[in-house]
Design brief:
Distance between the termini: 101 Å
Number of helices: 22
Helix content: 25-40%
Radius of gyration: 43 Å
Main location: membrane
Number of strands: 21
Organism: Ailuropoda melanoleuca (Giant panda)
CATH class of one domain: Alpha Beta
CATH superfamily of one domain: Zn peptidases
Structural class: alpha/beta
Family: Belongs to the peptidase M28 family. M28B subfamily.
Largest sheet: 8 strands, mixed
InterPro entries: PA_dom_sf, Peptidase_M28, Peptidase_M28B, TFR-like_dimer_dom_sf
Protein name: N-acetylated alpha-linked acidic dipeptidase like 2
CATH topology of one domain: Aminopeptidase
Length: 712
């Protein structure tokens, strides 16, 4: 049978206007439902309408129309009309349903078995692949204290001692590049990535062809800076050391004038002296310490002095340190290349003519020479108390000083290597040491710094070769030109200032780690102070007398200067010093004494102190590089600000602001830091935002203008 759908718009003329009323529509819907039910009866779809096929074959031009005409109607508004009945139509009915059901069942069973086998096989492959072939970039999110200890246990004092002695053999080189090449080759052999040179042509103030001299005019006696008469033959090592007993970037020339004792050169001392004497174009006898040298020289320059004889009073030194005849070097350079202040010394940079950075003639001298100039008695103790060197007020001494130096452009080389982080490769922890500058100081204390950073790189890369990586990038730097005013670190920092300002998280300083053997002295920025205290309690050496008060936020000498003062980067430094040096005036480390290898090995014969510094610094580096939340403490920053405002005449308004800052820091610690440190509550995007806040905290306390020598 065939049915044709007749649409409402194909009605015959003269049909009733009530044809589409509700009753007729309902009847049509019932009729359509019956037809569709009939079409859906079992086996109906197996019939083939032969008459329709034959009709299509006989009339090909009407095939399309006839194909449309046999479609079942679905519109509720259509009418079905029986067109014809073909008595000769042959219908065929095939009984294939049972066979198809069996085939479908077999096919489904095969698919299910195949999928199960493949699934089990995939699990086995994944298990053995994970077991035998660990990933080369294992996430360090599961890194714990045990892994830190595994890395640090590979650091051995004997390896540091061997590295130290190999480096000392290079100090006689006349070219800075030989030591730099040796360091680069060694770091590359350990597996450090992308080790590069960073070269800068800078203006250096070098020692003159002969040693400077000081003459006592009244007696006509000439002395070298170490107190030895000019007529005598110099002792072993002394001839070389005397050449490097000078103040870099001092004015050059000769000056004869009255010697005026200004003690430590603080503002009160100068006001008292100016009331008593005319200081114009006179020579000041100045003690090093208590205040930054550059600040004191600026005060002397304003007071009209023409020259300065600089020394360290023996009462300010440890009893074990016999430096009465030793000379030293100081730099009057606040930082960087003097010819390109504030911008890097790269090709095409404008060069300023600044051979000297002060109008004063400055000459460092030994304490033994001061004793001869002021005619001091042999005994400097009274009732067991050390008596400071002092020129009597009524005595007048006329002295003549001669300063001669040479200014040249030289190449300073930095060695920089990277260990790329896994999770936050755009966040950097900088680890800085310094190497010997061939035309600089004759000392060899730089070898301790370089040996320590190399030992940590070796231990770290052994773990990296097993598939581990830190979360954040660690940048290892060996700076050149440190003795001349941290020139290498300043130029590199100025060259990449925008990137470093945005990405540097912390700076770990390894500058001059062995200054004594009595006590471990730790210096940290306020935000890292709590972390350093924890490490001190856990890692104190048995030989060291560790105290909590040894963790301070005082100024750090060395190449960390640029990162603290210009970038506001939190900084940490560990060093062994003598207890007397810690208790006495600060800023004595501004003097560069030429320590020889034999002296360093006498202080630490088994290199256990070197090993302790390496492990302490290494653990701090690992924790900062791997903790999901930076281990910085906002509350310590607020407390440091509050404590620094307390004094003899505190500013009540500033103290009120500091109190509010402390309350905000406490709220920040409880509301933000606590959830972030809980893995169950940790949200990655919030942790990233929190780390950015912690990283930039100390940048908010940089001061635009400060007195010379002070931190910003």
């Amino acid at each position: 049978m065939a049915y044709q759908k007749v649409n409402a718009d194909q009605r015959a003329p003269g049909h009733s206007q009530y044809l589409d009323n509700d009753d007729l529509q309902a009847t049509a819907l019932d009729l359509e439902w019956d037809m569709e039910k009939e079409l859906e009866e079992p086996g109906f779809d197996q019939f083939q309408l032969d008459s329709a096929e034959n009709q299509n074959l006989e009339n090909p031009e009407t095939a399309d129309l006839n194909l449309d005409s046999i479609q079942p109607a679905t519109s509720p508004k259509g009418r079905f009309q029986r067109l014809q009945e073909e008595s000769d139509s042959v219908t065929r009915y095939t009984r294939s349903a049972p066979k198809n059901n069996r085939c479908n069942f077999c096919r489904l069973l095969k698919i299910l078995c195949t999928a199960t086998i493949l699934f089990i096989f995939g699990i086995l492959i994944g298990y053995y692949a994970h077991k035998k072939c660990p990933s080369n970039a294992t996430s360090s999110s599961t890194l714990d204290l045990q892994l830190y200890q595994e890395i640090l246990e590979t650091i051995q004092a004997e390896d540091i001692k061997k590295s130290f002695r190999n480096l000392v053999q290079l100090y006689k080189s006349e070219d800075d590049t030989e030591i730099s090449k040796k360091i680069k080759t060694h770091w590359t052999s350990l597996g450090l990535e992308d080790v590069q040179f960073a070269n800068y042509s800078v203006l250096l103030n070098l020692a003159g062809p002969s040693a400077s001299s000081v003459t006592l005019s009244s007696r006509g006696q000439c002395f070298h800076p170490n107190g030895q008469p000019c007529s005598e033959e110099t002792r072993t090592h002394s001839s070389q050391d005397l050449l490097y007993s000078y103040a870099a970037y001092s004015a050059k020339g000769t000056l004869e004038a009255e010697l005026i004792d200004v003690s430590y050169g603080n503002p009160d001392d100068l006001k008292r002296i100016q009331k008593m004497k005319n200081t114009t174009n006179q020579i000041a006898l100045l003690k090093l310490g208590k205040l930054p040298l550059l600040y004191k020289l600026s005060l002397l320059e304003k007071a009209g002095f023409g020259g300065v004889l600089l020394y360290i009073d023996p009462c300010d030194l440890p009893k074990t340190a016999n430096l009465s005849h030793d000379t030293f070097m100081v730099s009057l350079n606040p930082g960087g290349d003097p010819s390109t202040p504030g911008y890097p010394s790269v090709d095409g940079s404008f060069r300023q003519n600044r051979s000297n950075l002060t109008s004063l003639l400055v000459q460092p001298i030994s304490a033994s020479l001061v004793e001869k100039l002021i005619s001091s008695p042999n005994s400097r103790t009274r009732n067991g108390v050390c008596i400071l060197l002092e020129l009597p007020n009524n005595d007048e001494r006329i002295v003549s000083m001669q300063v001669q130096t040479v200014t040249k452009f030289k190449t300073v080389t930095n060695v920089v290597g990277y260990l790329k982080g896994l999770t936050f490769p755009d966040r950097y922890i900088i680890v800085g040491s310094h190497h010997h500058t061939a035309y600089g100081s004759y000392g060899q204390e730089w070898a301790s710094s370089t040996a320590i950073i190399t030992a940590f790189i070796r231990a770290l890369m052994l773990r990296v070769k097993k598939g581990w990586r830190p979360d954040r990038t660690i940048v290892f730097c060996s700076w050149g030109g440190t003795a001349f005013g941290n020139i290498g670190s300043y130029e590199w920092g100025e060259d990449f200032k925008k990137v470093l300002q945005r990405n540097v998280v912390a700076y770990i300083s390894l500058h001059s780690p062995i200054r004594g053997n009595s006590s471990l002295h730790s210096i940290a920025s306020p935000s890292l102070r709590q972390l350093v205290i924890e490490k001190n309690h856990f890692n104190c050496s048995r030989r060291a007398k560790c105290q909590e008060t040894n963790v301070s936020s005082v100024q750090i000498q060395g190449d960390a200067d640029y990162f603290i003062n210009h970038l506001g980067v939190p900084t940490v430094q560990f060093a062994f010093e003598d207890i007397k040096a810690l208790e006495g005036p600060s800023f004595l480390s501004e003097a560069h004494f030429p320590k020889h290898a034999t002296e360093i090995e006498e202080m630490d014969p088994f290199f256990n102190l070197h090993e302790t510094i390496t492990k302490l610094s290494g653990e701090v580096i690992l924790q900062i590089a791997n903790e999901p939340v930076l281990p910085f403490n906002a509350l310590d920053v607020a407390l440091e600000v509050q404590n620094s405002l307390k004094g003899d005449q505190p500013n009540t308004q500033l103290l009120a602001l500091a109190s509010r800052l402390r309350e905000s820091a406490e709220l920040f610690q409880s509301d933000e830091m606590r959830p972030a440190n809980d893995p169950k509550e940790r949200i990655p995007i919030r942790v990233r935002m929190l780390n950015d806040i912690l990283q930039d905290m100390e940048k908010n306390f940089l001061v635009q203008q400060v007195p010379p020598g002070f931190y910003r």
